[in-house]
Amino acid sequence: MSSSTTKRAILYRFDRQPSESLVHAETYLSEVGVEIMTRDGNLQSVDYTEVKALCFGAEGAPADLFTSPAVFERRPKTAGLWTSFVLRDGDVLEGVLPHNLLEWPKQGYLLTPPRSGTYRQRVFIPRLAVRETVLRGMVGKPLQTVAKKSVQRGAPDTDRQLSMFD
User: Fold this and answer.
1) What is the pTM of this model?
2) For the sheet containing 33-38, what is the strand order?
3) Quick check: 154 and 101 in contact, CB under 8 A?
4) Which end of the chain has fewer CB atoms surrounding its CB within 10 Å, N or C?
């Protein structure tokens, strides 16, 4: 693995301690599970049914994704879909998913967690780990370019105004 595509991650499993690992950023998701390299240098494929979450971050990142508050204290400012996930063991994790559904991996969800930063950048949650999903809101304007084009063409404001506000 080259260093430019290798990412540090913490693997959270159901009923196990979190473990630090390395993943290949483009090929860590396979048909049967998540492919990781342990700190000992062993290559493993962990089945999606065992994976609770995979948190990407810097070296020395604390394994506190589910021990620290995993919800937003205020409305997030990152553009996307503000979503709350209830996992199979009852833990709750909130995050922001991209507006573009094509960016979502078919094996699960890749989200920006609360208090993201150097130690906690992105989190992958397999679909098999999720018991319930709640869409809490949409942040940002994904169709902002369409609205700007209609204004540039000289469309009157009354054409864009909803009739309920007339």
Assistant:
1) 0.78
2) 43-47, 33-38, 19-24, 6-13, 51-56, 122-126, 108-111
3) no
4) C
